[in-house]
Structures are given as C-alpha cells and as structure tokens.
Task: inverse folding
C-alpha cells in the first residue's frame, strides 16, 4: 500500500501531530463494562450539550431513574474520569456565588469516543448526526471524516441507515486504533529518557550475589559493549560482578592496563561505566521489587515505534470504508434515484477519495 499523504485528501502526514491531538484521551478509564451504567447520562449529553446536572435530573426523572444523589454521584464520576467537561473552563465569579452556580456540561473527547465505541441503544443515524450537530468540531471528525466527506454532505444525508452504519463501523475501527496507539505511547512514556527516547534494558542486577554470577548477565553486558559502544574483541573480556560493592569489573585479557568498571549507584538511580577513570557511559537504574533494571537510552523514539503500524492500519481502514461505500450503496439509474448516491456524487472530496481508492486497488477508469 502506498504512503498516505496530505495531497491524497487524507490526514496530516506528520502522524506525531495527529496522535498528540488525542493524547488527552482517558484510555485508562475507557472500559465498556463500568461505562455501560453511565450510557444513559452520556447519551443525554450527546443530544443535549450545555445542560447542568439539575436539568438532566429534571428531564429524565421517572419511576426507573435512580434517586437524585445517585445521579449526582454518577455525573461526578464522569466529570472526574474525564468523560464530561464543563462548557466553560473557568468562571470569574465571586467566591460566595460559585457554590450556587449550576455549571453546564458537555461530552469531552473521551466521552465522544465512549459513545462511538460502546453505545448500544442509539441508532447509527442519530449517533453521527447528533455528534455532527452538537460536537461538530471534535478532532475525530476533523481528522478522519471531514477530509473524506464534507460536513455539508453529511448534513444533507439524513435517513440512510446503510450509509450511517458504514460510517459508524469505520469510526469505531479508527477509535480502536487510536486508543491502542495512545495506550502504547503512554505506556512507553513510563520508560523514556528526558528527551523522549526509549530506554532498553541492558541487564538485571540482583541483591543476591548468586543470582548475579550467571552467564546471562555476562552475555548481556558483552552484547551491549559490542553492539552499542562498538567495542571489538569482546570475546576476550572477563566480566566479574561484585554484588557486595555493586560493581562489575571488566578485564581485557589482550590489554590488561585498561581498567574498566561499571558502578551501580542505587541511591542515585544510575550506573556509570568508566575506563581508566574516564566516564564512557551512564545508565539509568530502575527498581523492580528486589531487582534493579539497568537501562540505556536507545536511538528510537516511542512515536517511531507506532508511526508506521498506525499509518498502515489506517490505510486498511480507509480502503475498507471507501470500498463499502462504493459497493454497498445503491447507485442511481434511469429507473431509480438514490438521494445518498446523488449527494455523495456532488462532493468533490468524496470523489477524490474514490480516485485514491482506484489507485490503491489498481482500478482503471
């Protein structure tokens, strides 16, 4: 599959800026089972943005509705977990007025993702059209839908269940891929250097001296010296761990005058490799229970690890989406007119998308 570039109507080729747009997603809370109990509240704010909690209670209270304090608690949980957010980020009210101010709420980006991924009791038509009406500028649509189909086109296509089913299936796939990519990046951020590079584990250091006297530790240090520091003739090295002093002595049989040692400084969270008193390399030391992980900065950034897979996966989603639209929608003929087909035919972005599809599938017009 060819590289998707901006000239092909698609997303910004700088995938870093695309994914950074979604870094605020609460993926740690984006789990279906606990969120299902809040779906009624999220669906309400999908359809009714800028409503305060008391307005929600007034609009939905019936015999099946939980008591008010439960509703307030659930909405508070959604605010705390980042699925709802205040319409106004800050209010310039006097202290004595704030407690009486009833703050209007709306879905956050995480709330929109939740609605798309997990909503079981709303039609595809209503889902897309309510987002389009009330959250038109959300970055999911801006990045992944509007470059393919114009907002004006979506406004004009009102009641085609097949069309909106295909759109929602596509959006759900994109949301899953974004969540996976952001989760990977956030997990990697726990193990990054200060300038954003991934840290590679060089070896594990044990408190028990018997555990450190093993061939695996020696082999890993030898591998690091040869492949990262580009030392030659590493097979002639004698590597001797000393757990009591937290040092590793490296003796070069071919050149015994070279005094090389790794010193593990537990309290400082680092280890230092020196040769004849000169510092050659510094490691990061990360505790894992009774063990220490001695790590070195790689030449890879976290975004580089996810960039190509994300672009390739999105390319597959895009091809599938366009193929289903082109083959699944009934085309207009002299005997029958399909309003959705006619509306899409007037959309130059969609037509450009189909040209891209033809090139990808090697279809000649």
Result:
């Amino acid at each position: 599959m060819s590289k998707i570039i901006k000239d092909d109507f698609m997303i910004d080729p700088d995938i870093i800026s695309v994914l950074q747009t979604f870094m605020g997603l609460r993926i740690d809370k984006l789990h279906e089972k606990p969120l299902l109990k809040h779906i009624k509240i999220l669906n309400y704010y999908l359809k009714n943005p800028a409503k305060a909690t008391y307005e929600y209670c007034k609009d939905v209270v019936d015999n099946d509705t939980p008591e008010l304090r439960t509703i307030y608690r659930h909405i508070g949980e959604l605010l705390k977990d980042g699925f709802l957010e205040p319409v106004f980020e800050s209010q310039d009210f006097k202290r004595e007025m704030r407690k009486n101010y009833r703050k209007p709420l709306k879905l956050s980006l995480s709330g929109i993702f939740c609605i798309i991924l997990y909503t079981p009791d709303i039609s595809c038509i209503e889902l897309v059209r309510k987002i389009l009406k009330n959250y038109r500028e959300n970055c999911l649509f801006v990045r992944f839908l509007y470059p393919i189909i114009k907002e004006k086109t979506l406004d004009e296509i009102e009641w085609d269940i097949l069309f909106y089913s295909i759109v929602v299936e596509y959006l759900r796939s994109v949301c899953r891929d974004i969540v996976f990519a952001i989760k990977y990046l956030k997990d990697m951020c726990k193990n990054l250097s200060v300038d954003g590079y991934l840290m590679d584990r060089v070896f594990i250091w044990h408190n028990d001296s018997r555990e450190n006297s093993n061939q695996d530790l020696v082999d890993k240090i030898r591998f690091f010296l040869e492949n990262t520091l580009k030392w030659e003739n590493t097979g002639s090295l004698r590597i001797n761990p000393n757990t009591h002093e937290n040092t590793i002595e490296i003796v070069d049989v071919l050149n015994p005058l070279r005094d090389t040692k790794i010193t593990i400084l537990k309290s400082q969270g680092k280890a230092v490799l020196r040769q004849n008193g000169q510092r050659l390399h510094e490691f990061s030391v990360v505790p894992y229970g009774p063990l220490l992980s001695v790590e070195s900065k790689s030449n890879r950034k976290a975004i580089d690890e996810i960039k190509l897979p994300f672009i390739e996966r999105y390319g597959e989603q895009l091809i599938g989406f366009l193929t289903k639209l082109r083959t699944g929608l009934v085309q207009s003929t002299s005997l029958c007119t399909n309003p959705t087909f006619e509306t899409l035919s007037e959309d130059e972005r969609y037509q450009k998308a189909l040209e891209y599809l033809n090139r990808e599938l090697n279809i000649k017009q």
Notes: The beta strands are 84-86, 105-107, 197-206, 237-242, 247-252, 259-265, 270-275, 278-288, 291-301. Residues 133 and 301 are 39 Å apart (CA to CA). The two ends are 19 Å apart (CA to CA). Residues 161-189 form the longest helix (29 residues).
